[in-house]
Amino acid sequence: MRRSLLALLVGLVALAACAPDAPSEVRDDLGRTVALDGVPEAVLPLAPNVTELVAEAAGADRLAAVSMSDSFPPEVNSLPRFQSLPLDAERVVSLQPGLAIGSAEVNAAESADGLAALGVPTYLFRFDEVADVPRALRTLDTLLATTGGSPAADAFERRVAVVQNAVQPFSAPRVLLLVGDETLYAFGRESYASELVRLAGGQNLTDVYPGAASQPSDEAVLEMAPEVIIVLAGPDYESSRLLEHHPTFFSLPAVQNDRVYGIDPDLVSRPGPRLVEGLERLARLLHPEAFAAGAA
Questions:
Q1: CATH architecture of 19-147
Q2: CA distances from 226 to 62, 183, 238 (A)
Q3: pTM above the 0.85 mark?
Q4: What are the residues whose beta carbons fall under 8 Å from the beta carbon of 177, sequence distance 6 or more?
Q5: Which of 289, 288, 133, 125 has its CA nearest to residue 196?
Q6: Can 19-147 and 170-290 be said to share one CATH topology?
Q7: Are β-strands 43-45 and 174-178 bridged in parallel, bridged antiparallel, or unpaired?
Q8: Where along the chain do its domains lie?
Q9: What is the pLDDT of residues 142-195, one digit of tens each?
Q10: Contact between 21 and 44 (Cβ < 8 Å)
Q11: Beta bridge partners of 213
Q12: Domain 170-290 in CATH 3.40.109.10
């Protein structure tokens, strides 16, 4: 009995010795200095994609609370909620997180600085490229002294490579990826979503617009003549909904050839672990021949 107890103690000491330590100070993607007081056990994600990243890298049990917009993974449904836009700083402080983590695309640097001034260290990621997702997963291993981010990042990158290899032999169709169908919100060439279309084997037509966002006119879309239109409005989306708002689009090749599709918006609009699932679904919509049974 004594030997068993001794062996158990030795094992626990060994595990503790092997456990990674969080750094005392880091710089986030905006170059801000973030001071950490040991390993942050309670983490507060300030954006839904960050929630998914933390859950993937460290487990949902590390989440102190989630925003009103969070919906994945399912474990978040039982967690406390807080208002993120605008940020309820008083509520955040009351949750006493060891670290708040946000996304520069959603959370302003001023808000992060305000939380830091109130004693809540706050780290901001940027997501300009698809590769920023696996990079963030690996960074979370460092920030949270965990080991789940790196293998998740490796798996993400392998799945991206599989898609690239599958679509490589085929010509790239002209693609219009829309956030909404009434006002034509889309992505610019400096967005991760534009890159996602290219990785899926498509030519993103709104790459003609600089920056991360774009809003093409009806006339511009008619000139672009997209061969495929994808709307972030769910898999049951129908082209009739697009034509209700833009009847002149009836002549577009995508409409004429019944190649107007919908996709779950969270798989594209949230740059997190599920972004690769969004890539796979885009690739299958653009190149069904690449994924047909028996395809090389």
A1: 3-Layer(aba) Sandwich (3.40)
A2: 44, 17, 16
A3: yes
A4: 186, 187, 193, 194, 197, 204, 206, 230, 232, 268
A5: 133
A6: yes
A7: unpaired
A8: 19-147, 170-290
A9: 999 999 999 999 999 999 999 999 999 999 999 999 999 999 999 999 999 999
A10: no
A11: 187
A12: no
